[in-house]
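The material for today's practical consists of a large collection of protein records. A record pairs a protein's sequence with a compact description of its fold. Instead of coordinates, the fold is spelled out as a row of discrete tokens. We will come back to this pairing of sequence and fold again and again. Here is such a record, shown just as it appears in the course material.
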Amino acid sequence: MHELFVTERAAEQHADLVDAARAAGVGVSPMTDRAADGLSETVTPQGIVAVCALLDRPLEEAVTPGARLVVVLVDVADPGNAGTVIRVADAAGAEAVVLAGDTVDPHNGKCVRAAAGSLFHLPITRVRDVSAALSACSTAGLRTFAAHGYADAELDRVDLTEPTAWVFGNEAHGLPADVLERTDLAVRIPLYGKAESLNLATAAAVCVYTSAMAARR
């Protein structure tokens, strides 16, 4: 954190946070409620705005040998979905989340809020080259499983006890054919009712948690 701006009301309500910032050598500046409205992206701002360093790390630091579960998002456009998947990966004990291709910036305000603090709990990396992301996972000893609604392999029939990297695609278009070809296996979630599909965040939660629970059994 580089600097903290607080309204008078927020400084009173969160005195412990303001004191902790000052103790860490962070500059604390007062601001008006009107300024808070202008700086915040929310309808009802809390009156605290911080200027912070970016959180993402290099690919080689995020995906390392020994990892058992990694999540890769390819061309995911919706920040709410991306943030929710980061939160799911964190809850399931994943070692890293890779945002590849044209995936949304994890520092997007909506993405940060959807992640609910999980951005601070596990390594996040951004890489434009999707092939490099998949290669890094393979080099780290992870099998790459692509979530694909038309795959032959079904989730409940796949061995998920090995170290795994789950690869998820764009909300509307899924994963490109060349990315599917580069993964070790395409896997689909069986649908037992009449719904045509699951949204990205729900599908990710099912796949990632299935792997996490299989590994722990």
About this structure: Residues 160 and 210 are 8 Å apart (CA to CA).
